[in-house]
């Protein structure tokens, strides 16, 4: 009996002195700042205006999230290859960075339901003679390393057994190489393709058609074990859609028909 009492007392004492672990959602609210990883060379999702201020769909989305949390947004410029490393190293709290929701990434980070959906487009150098996706066979093509479209395009080149695939660090590098004729064509999201062609910064390129790749659904992400924050982010995305804010931001930064974030037969 005495032994049981002693053990019970020790367990009780341990429970008292062991501090409860606050989750990331509490930490963000307590800190008063939400640090978002955002890619700023990916217009219209993220870029800088003439005054060097971050602007774009993802920037506004981070600001909306911070407002909902009652904290200040901090935009942390993060190139595509550094998005997940920035989270793992503790430099950011959440990724609002057009990140494809792949199963491979989900082994490392916790991903939400989609907050945006991209269709894929082919952009070609006008001198290449490329007028469609099929015309890319045997050509030198490139895309931003680690992105959905880069993985898909490199796979296509291997399946064709001809041509060459070149990875680049940023979207700006891809379109500069395309404009200079270092590559003949690229596959990117339709939003990026139209923005770069219409922007006039890269001469001699045109959007020539769609690429036959799946719609690229992208998610917010945070640490894999932060269930409270992931649940909050999922509800936030839901609220953005049903209040009309998602459509408002899409019209502001992209224009045209708002893509659905649902997958038929999976979730609505």
Automatic annotation (TrEMBL):
<protein>
    <submittedName>
        <fullName>Transporter substrate-binding domain-containing protein</fullName>
    </submittedName>
</protein>
<keyword id="KW-0732">Signal</keyword>
<dbReference type="GO" id="GO:0006865">
    <property type="term" value="P:amino acid transport"/>
</dbReference>
<dbReference type="Pfam" id="PF00497">
    <property type="entry name" value="SBP_bac_3"/>
</dbReference>
<comment type="similarity">
    <text>Belongs to the bacterial solute-binding protein 3 family.</text>
</comment>
<keyword id="KW-0813">Transport</keyword>
<feature type="signal peptide">
    <location>
        <begin position="1"/>
        <end position="22"/>
    </location>
</feature>
<dbReference type="GO" id="GO:0005576">
    <property type="term" value="C:extracellular region"/>
</dbReference>
<dbReference type="InterPro" id="IPR051455">
    <property type="entry name" value="Bact_solute-bind_prot3"/>
</dbReference>
<dbReference type="InterPro" id="IPR001638">
    <property type="entry name" value="Solute-binding_3/MltF_N"/>
</dbReference>
<feature type="domain" description="Solute-binding protein family 3/N-terminal">
    <location>
        <begin position="33"/>
        <end position="257"/>
    </location>
</feature>
<dbReference type="GO" id="GO:0030288">
    <property type="term" value="C:outer membrane-bounded periplasmic space"/>
</dbReference>
